[in-house]
Design brief:
heterodimer; A: 827 residues; alpha/beta; Ubiquitin-like (UB roll); Alpha-Beta Plaits; Rossmann fold; 5 domains; 7-stranded mixed β-sheet; 6-stranded mixed β-barrel; 26 helices; B: 177 residues; alpha+beta; 3-stranded antiparallel β-sheet; two-stranded antiparallel ribbon; 4 helices; 22% helix; 14% strand; binds iron/sulfur cluster; binds FE2/S2 (inorganic) cluster
Amino acid sequence: MMARPEPKSITFTIDGLEVEAPENAMLVDAAKLGDIEIPVFCYEPKLGNPVGACRMCLVEIEGIPKLQTGCSTPVKDGMVVHTQSERVRTAQQAVVEFLLINHPLDCPVCDKGGECPLQDITFGWGAGSSRFIEPKRHFVKPLELSPLIAIDRERCILCYRCVRFSQEIAEDYQLVLLERGAHSYVSTFDAHPYVAPFSGNIIELCPVGALTSRPYRFRARPWDIEGAGSVCTFCPSQCNVTLTVRDERVLRVLARDHAEVDDGWLCDKGRFAYQSIHVDERITEPLVRDGGELRAVPWERALQEAASALARARGKVAALAGGQSTNEEAFLLARLMREGLGSERIDTLAGVAPAKQHQLARPDLQAKVSDLEFADTVLVLGSEPVDDMPIVDLRIRKGVRRRRVKLALATSRPSSLDRNARLALRYSPGCEGAFLRALALALAGEDCQTPAQAAGAEGEQVRQLAELLRSGGSDVVILYGERMLAQGSAVEGLLRLASMLELSGRDGAGMLAVPAAGANGRGLLEAGFAPGYGPGLQPRPTASDQIDLTAAQLGAHAMAGGLSSGELSAVYLLHADPLESALPRAQWSHALAQASTVIAHASFLTEGVRDHATVVFPAQSYAEKEGTLVHPDGRLQRLRPAIGKQGQTRAEWSVICELAKRCGLDLGVLTGPMASKQLFEAVPFYAALTLEEIGGRGVRWQERDAAAGFPEPPPLEAEEPPAALPSPNGALRLGSFRSIWAATEVRVSPALQFLHPTQRVEMAPADAERLGLAHGETVRVSANDSSVTATVTLRDSTPAGSVFLEEGLGAHSANALAGAMVEVRKA
Amino acid sequence: MAWTPGEDVVEVVRAPAPGAAGGLYRSFGETLRGLKTTFARIIEGPVTIQYPEEKVPVYPRFRGRHKLHRFEDTGLEKCVGCSLCAAACPADCIRVVAAENTPDNRVSAGERYAAVYEINLSRCIFCGYCEVACPFDAITMGHEYELSDYSRTDLIFTKEMLLAEPLERTPLRKEGE
Ligand code: SF4
Ligand code: SF4
Ligand code: SF4
Ligand code: SF4
Ligand code: FES
């Protein structure tokens, strides 16, 4: 089956010009190939099939008596089209006049002014005057459609774009057009605020100033601003963005369409959390703990303190990097640790052994983001895309809706994609390994009843899933949450699944990870920021005198132990706060308290930094940095500075180099690009890569010749079989998730604050009834002497016997609980 | 090798020599002719204007330093902070930062107002495009031309300065003057 058929090329005539175009392209698109512009309002290919609502695109086609809409008429061979005839011109002028009948024309106060298609089209295709002297229709304005979006109904031209987005792209089904005719207006149908993870996209879609951004409201005009292309680093989707900059401040984030990454959409976190760059909470000067308190100090003092502490801790220092670190930062810090300080103890916040990631990072198994849309079957395994990698959620929906992709979900927590899936299967939290074992049996046609039950899944459903995967077509894409790799035998299970479905080397099929380490999780691994792994996934020589520990002993979990026991004395946190991550909270809290030195690069005084850091370097935000990132599908993307450095921040690479120099190691990096160059030279499968080649669109290393340099993963170590389900004995199994809004950037951005979650415990109505709990009640969830407070949230589709708690919420996070079985009691 | 200009040679054209009589006329006649103008002006009296005590009246359409206006009845600012003047300005010397009117803080008649309105008069070329661009006649060119100052930063006029009446009025040329 050809996944993406190439359309054949035809020739048609437009305004006397012979133009070649792909067959069945819409006329407005085909006309562009002949440099002819047909004005449009409602047509937006990203929204799917055209609706022909605005009539702006009327053209004359020979042989058809009436004018036709260019946005919904496919070109055919030999078609003769006129866009400049008298009839067309009259029609265009009439449509513009009609659209302006009720339009307030308050351009001077309208935020769209200067970048408004209605202005442009009126200027280009309108008659220049109106005959309408009657009073116009009035609405109350401006209103809040949501705390993020202002709506001005008078300006709406009823193009349906926003409604189509809500109904057909985000599928949140909140926006509708109410009333009829000239009285139609856009609203949520119960007049509730339109709050959804992707709501901000309608601001960019609206061709007039009817929907405008509240945070950007009246901030600038198009001629006051500059656009700076970069990449969002708030989650692994790494959407391409254009930052709107005025007076060295980021004022807005717009999508920068990239079909292979974001498909032209952004989530609201990416769109509005830019505010965190310019808030007062941000750390903009170096801090040193002095008399128990963090005090602002000059750079020299901070560098001196950090360097001497590191030198003292030589060999007894560890480093953790967060997902927002660039490849270069991670690469240089790894060099500092290994070459300068004689320590191999570096890790990310993933909590997954890199050897396991290595097994699945093979280029032959790698799927691209766009494969999710064109595959035959997509299996989402152990991940909630809308929380973990939001833009991929839209991509999956698009595939299901427009290309009839068969979607299967296998997760422990109910997913927002359940309704779109052919099959939504549940297993118990933490039972991925066992579930995959059952699935493999089912795929082999064997009885899977007992193993399925061991995973808390229904045998029949596992069998159906196997059937769907086997017979649904050969292009299968598996989107898996990397965190499951921490489970016994999950890697083995995934590899077995891949080989049974023959995914290896198949174009348009494969696996795509949702990195556990955060936005640049893959880049950190490839840059060599992993225990036991150097740049380019090359194993560190274990025979070297520095290390005789296994990867597990070098990793994050052992690090906490080492710090607590005094075996390690210093820890270097690069954009990482273990207390905000999914790592076990109690251990890390104790570990940080025991560490004599905690050096952090941070933008905000998050708990771990505030309470434990001894030296804090102000970190750069993604709008200030340069460097590269790696998308989960292997695309290297470039961050480019959009604004000057804020306050006294300094580039992380330069701080690391400076510290290295003071510790007696010359890293040989004087500029950001020099760091990139060193990285590209160190990673065999990036060989000969340059920043120019990456450019604004990124490049997938798997598609370059150098990909052959990918080191073959060592044979899989036999893993302990999946742990048997602990007997419930009245207790509930704990699963955890991290909501899209549980992020520091969200908490400090004034516009998004209202979305920052509080802890809630999701449970099945049956369990709640058994425990006598009601929706909205405050409860204590406890496990082995640890407990958190939460609000009960009943979700019908939650499997009985499991509860789900959120992570990333400080003291009340799921990871504050020490144990997988919990009890829920009224508080 | 010497270069022969060939056809490129252009003859230098010289006026005929004036000769004795012509030379005499040049030395005295022309001088006297010039002096005629000089003496004729003497009887007109002095035309020097005693600036700054005395000022030249300007024409009504003279383009001097800008003024921002308020509505006379409500006292609200006419400027809504739309930045069109800034877009029109060829010298790029206007800076507008808009903000939203709230019921407690109503500054202009529209939804937005100019929180910051600055004109850098050291860059302004007094072309008047800003006045033409303004959809609300909120900015007009005034008559003040005495704009010198001791530092460049003092030439950045803020909204308050532009809204205020000028300290001293410039005399306006009367009809027929
Ligand atoms: S939507 Fe466009 S045409 Fe309408 S008021 Fe706003 S800027 Fe003017
Ligand atoms: S609000 Fe904007 S996008 Fe929505 S229908 Fe009206 S004009 Fe179209
Ligand atoms: S999906 Fe992720 S990368 Fe994309 S805009 Fe949202 S936070 Fe940023
Ligand atoms: S007069 Fe001309 S140069 Fe001066 S501010 Fe106005 S538009 Fe700019
Ligand atoms: S663009 Fe064709 S009808 Fe709207």
